[in-house]
Specification:
Length: 699
């Protein structure tokens, strides 16, 4: 049996080698299978200590609060990356020299945070293209020149707000994570607002040559789809979300694309969307050529905890009854690994539907049960108990303990509440968008995770037909930006002293059309929007206006939240005991852990002798045939690391000018292997950067 298993691993490794050019990194995360695996082994466990900086390229686009999360593509010696301002750059991958740049902003200043996690590359003969999104546009540019492909859409771009089955002109929609390309079809999801109004998160397949829509899968199902019974009548006309913002994976041989989705909007209170809400919070298997659904699995019924699937799944091969089974592995924000047969959707580890508590908030009807796996064990802690309260200092312990007693803290799926409910792992996960890496040599599955608690508190929206700018702001904006306008930077920026950064015309345009994840509020009409603008810019709150009359709107909910609140101690460190971030390796055949370590440190705590605390970490890992696991991710120490993939032992590290909140790439040119890491930082008030670092062994 052991010989058969080894042959199976060898065959899989050979197939991956055929699909992936050994010298290149031509797809987001290395391949459409999303394994983040490379067959390169020149850099290995025996020589990693000699790894040196080969070159560094500074985009010059970093600004306070900016982020840069791009996984570089490398094709035929050229590296394609994005900058914090969403410029697309082509670099000589051996030297870091700039070859060309494309600016979708056309030189206009960029001060608000933007994100791009990578690009799609496609070629047919001499036609070589890159696809990426900026704002609501999907662009195609010539990979050799950086010029828009005139025959794609209109002058090289298409509008993602179109072809959604409803008017999305003033709704926020973009695509921060690239899709996958099957033959001549680009399959892509979207990022939409998490509040209402929001665009629907339908999955679409576009013709790579023309930009024509080839197919659409409606994640908020229309009448006639059996899944429509899990929504109120007419939900397809007003509910948004159920979108795939985290990316997709594809089985190229079978032509199946695997799509993870997030929650329906509004994320935290669902009185207007009674039912389980298929296809929100699902892994969906679709025929890549037609968009036809093959199977689905829902991880959270009627989500009110923001339990989006945070990353694209990973295609793996496991042993069952001594035989190889092609599978798809999905990690979750709540800290679990799910494993499915790629073809049938059958779960390959057991799970059960467990009874969960009902909501005591009026209007909310939660599902009676929720699915939880029985194996593997979770990779993040599941409940914040008094035993888990920080012991960093006696003072911190007492403050956190007293606050914990004032809120609800229970097992997974404890309902949102008026007094506040602990979400652990927090809204960012657990598992996050960097996702897992898979090593076909060993069968190990690697996950970096956060172990942070957050507090979810529902607050009533102020109501009444006669309202002022302050009331309108609190009703429509305070859920993200807080009543005091302090926000939760960088995800939700502070609006205090906005007049120093935005003109009245700019504020008015954003209120009408939206920006980033923020929806447009054009439906409130001009008098109401003008009142909000005056309140934001000058604090004026004297004018009382009449809101739009008519029947109650299904998007005007009774409750919102009081902001995105991390549960921190008085000094700003996590409220729970360490580790605050972890790195784990799981045997995907058996579900048993091979190793698990704290991941990341706080330099100021290390200086006091407090080491190995772990820290928040964002971005994925790359695993290689050289026995190494490369990963940046750690938010507090700005380090790029190399670990022994079999043991978890740290073998090498390098401190960059900002955190590596992206996924590295590895490639070879003229027989020389490189590893490249983007240092964008900017997460949760971290220092922002805009540089790419490439490493290699000395000649």
């Amino acid at each position: 049996m052991a010989v058969i298993a080894m042959l199976g691993r060898t065959l899989l490794l050979s197939l991956i080698s055929l699909c992936l050019l050994a010298e290149d990194w031509p797809s987001y995360h290395g391949s459409p299978a999303n394994t983040k695996y490379s067959t390169l082994d020149q850099i290995n466990t025996s020589n990693i200590g000699r790894l040196k900086l080969a070159w560094r390229y500074d985009t010059g686009d970093a600004f306070e609060g900016s982020e840069m999360q791009c996984n570089p593509l490398i094709v035929r010696g050229v590296m394609y990356v994005s900058s914090p301002k969403l410029r697309i750059l082509a670099l000589d991958a051996a030297t870091g020299q700039l070859k060309w740049a494309f600016d979708p902003n056309k030189g206009k200043p960029v001060t608000g945070k933007t994100r791009n996690r990578g690009l799609n590359y496609w070629e047919s003969g001499r036609d070589r293209r890159l696809y990426f999104s900026a704002s609501h546009w999907l662009y195609a540019v010539n990979a050799d020149t950086g010029q828009p492909v005139a025959t794609f859409g209109t002058a090289g771009r298409i509008d993602l707000r179109q072809n959604l089955g409803r008017d999305a002109t003033n709704l926020s929609i973009t695509a921060t994570t690239p899709g996958v390309i099957y033959k001549d079809i680009l399959v892509i999801g979207s990022l939409v607002s998490e509040g209402l109004p929001a665009a629907p998160g339908h999955i679409r397949g576009y013709d790579v040559r023309t930009g024509r829509l080839r197919w659409i899968f409606r994640t908020i199902p229309p009448p006639g789809d059996p899944a429509a019974a899990t929504w109120p009548k007419g939900a397809q006309d007003y509910i948004g979300g159920a979108n795939s913002w985290a990316g997709v994976a594809m089985d190229e041989k079978r032509g199946i694309v695997y799509v993870p989705t997030g929650s329906a909007a509004f994320d935290f209170y669902g009185a207007n969307r009674a039912g389980d809400n298929l296809y929100a919070n699902c892994l969906i298997a679709l025929k890549a050529e037609t968009g036809e659904k093959l199977w689905h699995f829902q991880f959270v019924h009627h989500d009110t905890w923001d339990r989006d699937l945070p990353t694209a799944p990973t295609l793996v091969t496991v042993k069952r009854n001594g035989k190889p089974v092609d599978a798809v592995a999905q990690i979750t924000k709540s800290g679990w690994i799910w494993l499915f047969d790629r073809v049938t959707g059958k779960t390959l580890f057991p799970y059960e539907e467990r009874p969960v508590a009902p909501s005591d908030v009026d209007g909310e009807v939660l599902a009676k049960t929720q699915p939880l796996p029985l194996k593997p064990a979770p990779f993040a802690r599941q409940q914040f108990t008094e035993d888990e309260v920080t012991n960093r200092t006696p003072e911190a312990h007492e403050v956190v303990l007293a606050r914990l007693k004032q809120v609800r803290s229970g097992p997974q799926f404890t309902p949102a509440s008026r007094e506040g409910t602990v979400i652990f792992p927090g809204f960012d996960g657990g598992g996050e968008w960097g996702g897992a890496a898979y090593d076909p040599q060993t069968g190990l599955f690697y996950i970096n995770a956060n172990e942070m608690a957050w507090i979810l508190r529902l607050v009533p929206k102020q109501t009444g037909k006669m309202v002022s700018g302050r009331i309108l702001y609190n009703r429509n904006c305070a859920g993200c930006h807080r009543e005091d306008m302090a926000g939760s930077p960088p995800e939700f920026p502070a609006l205090q002293n906005l007049i120093s950064r935005r003109s009245e015309a700019q504020v008015s345009e954003i209120l009408h059309k939206g920006a980033g994840r923020m929806p447009g509020f054009a439906y409130l009409k001009d008098p109401a929007l003008a009142s909000i603008a005056r309140y934001l810019l000058s604090g004026e709150d004297k004018e009382v206006i009449q809101t739009v009359s008519g029947p109650p709107s299904p998007i005007d909910l009774k409750y919102t939240i009081d902001g995105y609140n991390k549960f921190l101690d008085p000094d700003g460190y996590p409220a729970v005991k360490p580790p605050w971030g972890t790195l784990s390796a799981v045997n995907i055949d058996t579900g048993e852990y091979a190793w698990k370590i704290p991941f990341g440190e706080f330099p100021e705590l290390v200086a006091k002798g407090v080491k190995s605390t772990g820290s928040e970490n964002y971005g994925g890992a790359v695993v290689t045939a050289g026995g190494l696991l490369f990963i940046g991710a750690t938010n507090a120490d700005n380090k790029f690391h190399a670990f022994d993939k079999r043991t978890g032992k740290l073998l090498w590290e390098f401190t960059m000018d900002a955190a590596g909140n992206s996924t590295p790439s590895t490639y070879s040119i003229n027989g020389k292997q490189y590893v490249v890491m983007g240092a964008g930082g900017g997460k949760w008030k971290g220092l922002s950067g805009g540089s790419y670092y490439a490493f290699a062994l000395p000649d």
